[in-house]
Amino acid sequence: MDNLSILLAEDNAVNQKVALLMLKKLGYQADVVSNGLEVLDALRKQPYQIVFMDVQMPDMDGLTATKKIVEEWSETERPWIIAMTANAMEGDREACLDAGMNDYVTKPIKTDQLKEAFSRYDQKSSN
């Protein structure tokens, strides 16, 4: 499964580096963008299987970007979107899922969370 095409949407440079290192440790690499507009541009240029989507980003946040992805790509064409958020308040997970995200991990992200997210993606793909 290490041939997955992954897009990391994160506006904070330190968080980008940390996430990329964690992914690398798990045998994955990812392209990086820093806001929702860049996510849409990247998806229009090439398909990604997984997008790790920061919820709070400048220019266009992750929830807005996800809603636009849901509008623009059919369910079979769009990527599996995993929310990454420091907002672990009641209702935040639901807001992400309501926007069309498929999964949810909280920051600071831990390697185990990423493993579990990939495992849920694998289960989805094998169905």
Describe, in plain words, how this protein is organized in 3D.
The protein has 127 residues and is an alpha/beta fold. 46% of the residues lie in helices and 17% in strands. It has 5 helices and 5 strands. The chain has a 5-stranded parallel sheet, with helices on both faces. The model has no long low-confidence stretch (mean pLDDT 94).
Task: Report the order of strands and helices.
Answer: EHEHEHEHEH
Q: Note poorly predicted spans.
A: none
The largest pleated sheet is described as: 5 strands, parallel
Q: State the helix count.
A: 5
Range of helix content: 40-55%
Mean pLDDT: 94
Computed Rg: 13 Å
Report the span from N to C terminus.
15 Å
Structural class: alpha/beta
Shape: globular
State which percent range the strand residues make up. Answer: 15-25%
Number of strands: 5
Biggest sheet: strand arrangement: 2-1-3-4-5
Which terms would index this structure?
alpha/beta, 46% helix, 5 helices, globular, 127 residues
What is the compact description of this entry?
This protein is of the alpha/beta class. The chain has five helices and five strands, in the order βαβαβαβαβα.
Set out the fold topology.
Layout (H helix, E strand, L loop, with lengths): L5 E4 L3 H13 L5 E3 L2 H10 L4 E5 L7 H11 L7 E6 L6 H8 L3 E4 L4 H16 L1
Parallel strand pairs: 1-2, 1-3, 3-4, 4-5
Helix pairs in contact: 2-3
